[in-house]
Amino acid sequence: MTRFLLARAALTLGLAAFALLSAAQPAGADLRAARDARLQTGLEALVVTQRLDQAIQQGRLALALVDVTDPTAPRLAMLNGDRMMYAASMPKVAILLGALAEAEAGRLPMTPGILGAMTNMIRFSSNDDATRVLKFVGVERLAEILQSPRFGLYDPANFGGLWVGKGYGPEPAIRRDPLRNLSHGATAFQTARLYWMLASDRLLSPQMNALMKQVLSNPGIAHKFVKGLESRPGAAVYRKSGTWRNFHADSALVESGGRRIVMVGIADHPDGGDWLMRLAGPMHDLVCAPVDTVAARRSD
């Protein structure tokens, strides 16, 4: 009887803790529930202004934009956000997540050599270092991490997401994604969701979140979003991009003027890099520009 009462008390305490945890979560805690009509309208108008609406219609451009200034109340807009596309080196951010998750669990020592390889993989997009870090984690283990309930960054039943099925070298793919048979794939939405989780300190432990931001900081290649944001002085950019043949991708958490923005773009076109450069500043302004400035532009 005593054992039963103790078990019942433990269950009651567990349910109470769960209720408190659930109450602490914002309504629609996952990012998909944060679609914002005003931001969506602005993004749709922007691609028309940039003459990229046809690329959207053809499925050759995917975008996601999130205002994460208040991480508990994000605002999301996206175009082709759930379209699974080849993303070149951008999914190296998933390798970074996998390595830090394994380090957090005590399965990967965070030595200076490993930290240096992660940094080169992200800032300078080193293929050799990306392959090296991926071997530390393992392709199969990374797939488990990305599909785990904790992260949910790839869901074969819900449009896919971030995927890494091989290293960044001549070796054959070990495990291609189930939806599009891609070796290195992503959706703009799930990539944006990773950055939102990072910005809201729900991705990893505080220590590992800080380390992830450190690695993503100080981009070593000034093109695409980084180039496009040069005209917005003072913007701090935490990013990972990718380029291979006609495929161009970029992803970033941008901190600017007290605001925090996540922007993601994936393009399948020879001019895709230029597209992302042209979009970066205006996407920034959809979140950061004062309301009166936006209104003045609309009246012109």
Average pLDDT for all residues: 89
**Distance, first to last CA:** 78 Å
* Biggest β-sheet: strands ordered side by side in the sheet: 2-1-10-9-8
Low-confidence stretches: 1-29, 291-300
Q: What does this protein structure show overall?
A:
The chain is α+β, with helices and mostly antiparallel strands and 300 residues long. 47% of the residues lie in helices and 17% in strands. It contains twelve helices and ten strands. It has helices at 2-24, 37-49, 53-57, 92-104, 112-123, 127-137, 139-147, 188-199, 206-216, 224-228, 272-288, 291-299; strands at 61-67, 75-79, 85-86, 154-155, 160-161, 163-164, 184-186, 236-244, 247-256, 259-268. It has a five-stranded antiparallel beta sheet with strand order 2-1-10-9-8, sandwiched between helices. The chain has a three-stranded antiparallel beta sheet with strand order 3-7-6. A two-stranded antiparallel sheet has the order 4-5. A hairpin with a 2-residue loop joins strand 9 and strand 10. Helix 4 packs parallel to helix 6 (127-137), helix 4 packs across helix 7 (139-147) and helix 5 packs across helix 6. The longest helix is centred in the N-terminal third of the chain and has 23 residues, at 2-24. The radius of gyration is 20 Å and the shape is globular. The protein starts with a helix and ends with a helix. The relative contact order is 0.15. Residues 1-29 and 291-300 have low confidence and may be disordered.
What attributes characterize this protein structure?
300 residues; alpha+beta; 5-stranded antiparallel beta sheet; 3-stranded antiparallel beta sheet; 12 helices; 10 strands; 17% strand; globular; disordered N terminus; disordered C terminus
